[in-house]
Amino acid sequence: MPKTWRLYQDVLRSYPNSTIVEKVLITTRFLELPIRDIDRWIGESDTIADLGCGRGVLANILLKLSPNRSIYGVDLSEGRIERAIASAQGNSRLEFIVADVTDPQLYRTERRFDIVLVSEVLYLLSHGKQEQVLDSVASILKPDGKLIIKDYTTRPWYKYYMFWIETNLLYLLVNSIYSVATKFGKLGHLFRLITIMFGVRDNVTVSSPEQFVSMLTRTGWRILSGSFPSHGFWPHYLSICQKMRCNKLH
Ligand SMILES: C[S@@+](CC[C@H](N)C(=O)[O-])C[C@H]1O[C@@H](n2cnc3c(N)ncnc32)[C@H](O)[C@@H]1O
To answer: Which of 169, 188, 195, 242 is least crowded, fewest Cβ atoms below 10 Å from its Cβ?
Structure first.
């Protein structure tokens, strides 16, 4: 397996015309995502549906770790999908489309994947929509396929409070400055870049580990592993699940 530094350089090379903001974003993916913990659950030639793939950074990482994988990335943002498509540089093993992961139409397909990956997306949806996604993804998985969820959670508490401050206070602060700054042209643009750089978000729904477990159980998932990867700044939760089999009684 390539060493992390080489991997990082390789991924950066997939985004040749990236701005400084994008470079920072790619770097934060390396600092925050539990890449090895995710990678070890994925086979060397698995097919992966990456729901909410963003610019495709994680998809690129997973493909560079095992070049025989095929990854189908989906994201709501046209701009991010454009960057993801550019990063694929014609590699047919990387495919990206614009779609909403809460749209039932996305799951009406004959395609089946070994892995469905949902990394840092559920917390951007309401609990009702999270459960809807968890329910729908089973239909695009192969019978023994795995669902991998990487999200934020409420533990450890100090990381959660840092995260809360980042998502709520920074959001408020940056947006109020932004609304004033827009009146001053370029300054407004600068604040918009800061908003993007820090990933300031609104409407986050961070679930506790217990809420994840009950949502997954309610939607028929068996949890093979639930862990709290400890590196980085934020409180991570990583769950590996398989669909429960119904043994029909005759
Ligand atoms: C924090 S980024 C995570 C990107 C990537 N999965 C990763 O782990 O690096 C969240 C992504 O989810 C996407 N997203 C949010 N809601 C979505 C939805 N309803 N359907 C598809 N994508 C969505 C956003 O556009 C954004 O690119």
So the answer is: 169
